[in-house]
């Protein structure tokens, strides 16, 4: 290949690079930005930032906590869905816990997903004065899980238990396990540092209702960890507490919940939801009480 052909090819490639740089690197981003400035779109394009007296207080698209300096929920505010994003609602660490339904045994370094759900349910139940019990949870708020030790059949099921341990209840935290015996064998609490993985892991459903009073979004984080909304069911069980803190009738708080609720998108997508930040701001504006 002679030099003139090589130069022409490189010059053509350079011109193509410049043209596509202008189109895709400058023109397209500028076009998208201009579209985002159109009436009705600018607020969303700029992050749906909510401002009070010109001061940004948060985004309608990103959840945030409503707690005091010690991390305790403020009684005059509706509480958001739990978050697994960083220290909570961190857009730079958006993500879930990546724990699945089989994560039921606590370890020395972290609680299982089941225990996280159980502890959240108990805490929410105590805070809202409702029944916080749920299937496969102990009354103390940990996963109701046994390690059943003994000879097994061909399918791996223990046929004659010789020892049964409540693996999520260390003897340092409970005086007695959540149940007295299993298959006629006394249940023991777990000894710290002991490994009970050789036993068959058996979650125990217990007597909690199949439809817990504390809804699922009150005890689990969303996939992004940034969910700004809660379910109407979670909002409903918080109304009495917020009304008492604000010193107003529960029906008035319920009206604000409805005003800050949304249905399914286009009538079919997603679930009904309540935006927590908008609701709490409406509370401060309408019923200041102990808010703000």
From TrEMBL:
Q: Where are the transmembrane segments?
A: 12-35
Its subcellular locations are: Cell membrane
Sorted keywords for this record are:
ATP-binding, Cell membrane, Ion transport, Membrane, Nucleotide-binding, Potassium, Potassium transport, Transmembrane, Transmembrane helix, Transport
Q: Which InterPro entries match?
A: KdpC
**What GO annotations for molecular function exist for this entry?**
ATP binding; P-type potassium transmembrane transporter activity
Annotated Pfam families? KdpC
Complexes and interactors? The system is composed of three essential subunits: KdpA, KdpB and KdpC.
Family per UniProt?
Belongs to the KdpC family.
Function of the molecule: Part of the high-affinity ATP-driven potassium transport (or Kdp) system, which catalyzes the hydrolysis of ATP coupled with the electrogenic transport of potassium into the cytoplasm. This subunit acts as a catalytic chaperone that increases the ATP-binding affinity of the ATP-hydrolyzing subunit KdpB by the formation of a transient KdpB/KdpC/ATP ternary complex.
Q: What is this protein called?
A: Potassium-transporting ATPase KdpC subunit
Which organism is the protein's source? Mycobacterium kyorinense
Q: Which gene encodes it?
A: kdpC
């Amino acid at each position: 290949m002679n030099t003139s052909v090589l130069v022409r090819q490189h010059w053509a490639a350079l011109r193509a690079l410049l043209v596509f740089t202008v189109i895709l690197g400058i023109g397209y981003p500028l076009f998208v930005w201009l579209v985002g400035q159109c009436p009705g779109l600018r607020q969303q394009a700029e992050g749906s930032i909510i401002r009070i007296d010109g001061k940004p207080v948060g985004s309608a698209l990103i959840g945030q906590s409503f707690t005091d300096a010690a991390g305790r929920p403020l009684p005059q505010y509706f509480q958001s869905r739990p978050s697994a994003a960083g220290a909570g609602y961190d857009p730079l660490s958006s993500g879930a816990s990546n724990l699945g339904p089989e994560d039921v045994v606590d370890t020395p370094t972290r609680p299982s997903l089941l225990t996280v759900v159980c502890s959240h349910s108990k805490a929410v139940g105590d805070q809202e004065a409702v029944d916080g019990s749920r299937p496969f949870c102990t009354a103390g708020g940990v996963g109701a899980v046994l390690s059943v030790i003994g000879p097994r059949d061909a399918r791996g099921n223990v046929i004659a238990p010789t020892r049964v341990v409540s693996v999520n209840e260390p003897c340092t935290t409970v005086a007695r396990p959540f149940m007295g015996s299993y298959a006629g064998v006394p249940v023991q609490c777990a000894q710290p540092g002991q490994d009970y993985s050789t036993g068959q892991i058996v979650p125990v459903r217990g007597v909690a209702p199949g439809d817990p009073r504390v809804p699922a979004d009150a005890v689990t984080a969303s996939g992004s960890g940034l969910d700004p909304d809660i379910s109407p069911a979670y909002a409903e069980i918080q109304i009495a507490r917020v009304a008492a803190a604000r010193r107003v009738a529960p029906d008035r708080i319920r009206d604000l919940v409805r005003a800050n609720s949304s249905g399914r998108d286009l009538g079919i997508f997603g679930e009904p939801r309540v935006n927590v930040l908008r609701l709490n701001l409406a509370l401060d504006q309408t019923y200041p009480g102990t808010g703000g």
